[in-house]
């Protein structure tokens, strides 16, 4: 068989190049520590490696969500613990205020400390997390949830949104509780009310939080609402600031309270409800006293402070004070129950997070082991193979040199 010089040259060169390619590939495997460098090396293994890498990446995101969820819930649990401590202290002060030997002046001092505790409660309820988001605002994380009213008490500005984070393919965990659920929508021991100013008011007047001084009288009026309307100065003679108190449903005056002369800060007692209007309302301004079965913890405390500062030492007002203290203690118990129930829920969520995190760790370990078996190089085998390939490459190069010398022209 004849072998041309070109055929001989190409065959030798192809052998050298094939051996060089094998040697280079083995060197890359050793240097990278990876057996599969391209999908062509092992198509089946490459597909499985890609799936495992995607699963590992997804679990990494889940782990970030696990950490974020735990941090938020741990912070919330800590805040609620402090809230409970403040409510407990307010409860102690409420009990002390019921001491029959205390005078109005003594109760004023107690009211001052309770007022400080109310401010501390409000600060706790406005806590932000590490991402500068209010934790009790629901979905409105950039909005301060609780704002102090000029007349006492606190207004909730958040919403009912409950945030969740996905911590596994099939598990989502709630990472917040709204201030409305925790601190506002709390059962009241007795029929109660809350006060507010009309948003359309033009003047600089405000209504205080108020409290119930005669539960029987208020129960007879409940669930009707009251409206305090300011009339034109000319409504009375001589002209001057004046108001009327009417039923919201039919606009009829209550207890003949129509055209009453107004003095800032004067206490009104209407159907067992005590409250004050202060400032400079304009004619046409109105204020609402709206019935409710629920009472926020801040309204409970604000009403207590107002009662301690205004109810005197005479028998009638002492009886009203005793009733106020009794109702306040019961409402504070309801508030603590609300906080305790949510803390229990938080504990359950944290347990779920721990279980999911442990599951992620176990699956991660198995996935990494399988991934390593598919893509990591066996260094002992690779080094041995490299030695063989280097030897074959060297032999091919030497044989190519020798065979190229076998020519008739070299014998002439």
Characterise this structure:
A hairpin with a 5-residue loop joins strand 1 (146-148) and strand 2. Helix 2 (43-97) runs antiparallel to helix 3 and helix 2 runs antiparallel to helix 7 (315-375). The protein folds into 2 domains: 34-186 and 296-376, f41 fragment of flagellin, N-terminal domain (Up-down Bundle), CATH 1.20.1330; 188-294, no CATH class. The model has no long low-confidence stretch (mean pLDDT 85). It is elongated. The protein has helices spanning 5-32, 43-97, 104-125, 179-184, 215-221, 297-310, 315-375, 379-404; strands spanning 146-148, 154-156, 164-168, 171-174, 187-197, 204-207, 211-212, 226-231, 242-247, 260-261, 267-270, 273-280, 286-294. The protein is built from 8 helices and 13 strands. With 412 residues, it is α+β, with helices and mostly antiparallel strands.
Concise description?
With 412 residues, the protein is α+β, with helices and mostly antiparallel strands. It is built from eight helices and 13 strands.
């Amino acid at each position: 068989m004849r072998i041309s010089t070109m055929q001989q040259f190409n065959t030798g060169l192809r052998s050298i190049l094939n051996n060089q390619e094998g040697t280079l590939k083995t060197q890359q495997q050793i240097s990278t520590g990876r057996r599969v460098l391209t999908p062509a090396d092992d198509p089946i293994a490459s597909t499985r490696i890609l799936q495992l890498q995607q699963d590992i990446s997804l679990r990494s995101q889940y782990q970030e969500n696990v950490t974020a969820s735990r941090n938020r819930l741990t912070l919330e649990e800590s805040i609620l613990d402090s809230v409970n401590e403040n409510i407990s202290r307010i409860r102690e002060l409420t009990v002390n205020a019921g001491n029959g030997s205390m005078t109005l002046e003594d109760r004023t001092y107690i009211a001052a400390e309770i007022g400080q505790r109310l401010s501390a409660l409000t600060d706790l309820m406005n806590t932000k997390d590490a991402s500068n988001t209010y934790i009790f605002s629901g979905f409105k994380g950039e909005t301060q949830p609780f704002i102090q009213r000029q007349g006492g008490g606190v207004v909730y500005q958040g919403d009912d949104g409950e945030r969740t984070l996905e911590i596994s393919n099939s598990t989502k965990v709630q990472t917040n509780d709204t201030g409305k659920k925790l601190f506002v929508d709390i059962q009241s021991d007795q029929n109660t009310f809350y006060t507010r100013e009309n948003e359309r008011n033009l003047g600089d007047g405000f209504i205080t939080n108020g409290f119930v001084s005669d539960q029987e009288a208020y129960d007879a009026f409940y669930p009707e609402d009251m409206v305090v309307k300011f009339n034109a100065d000319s409504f009375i003679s001589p002209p001057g600031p004046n108001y009327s108190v009417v039923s919201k449903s039919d606009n009829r005056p209550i207890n003949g309270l129509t055209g009453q002369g107004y003095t800032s800060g004067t206490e009104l007692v209407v159907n067992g409800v005590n409250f004050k209007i202060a400032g400079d309302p304009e004619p046409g301004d109105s204020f609402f006293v709206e019935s409710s079965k629920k009472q926020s913890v801040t309204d409970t405390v604000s009403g207590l402070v107002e009662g301690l500062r205004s109810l005197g030492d005479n028998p009638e007002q002492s009886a009203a004070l005793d009733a106020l203290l009794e109702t306040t203690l019961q409402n504070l118990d309801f508030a603590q129950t609300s906080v305790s129930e949510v803390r229990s829920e938080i504990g359950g969520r944290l347990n779920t997070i721990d279980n999911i995190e442990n599951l992620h760790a176990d699956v991660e370990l198995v996935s990494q082991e399988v991934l390593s078996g598919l893509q990591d190089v066996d260094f002992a085998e690779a080094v041995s193979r490299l030695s063989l390939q280097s030897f074959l490459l060297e032999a091919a190069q030497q044989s190519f040199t020798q065979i190229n010398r076998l020519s008739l022209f070299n014998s002439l």
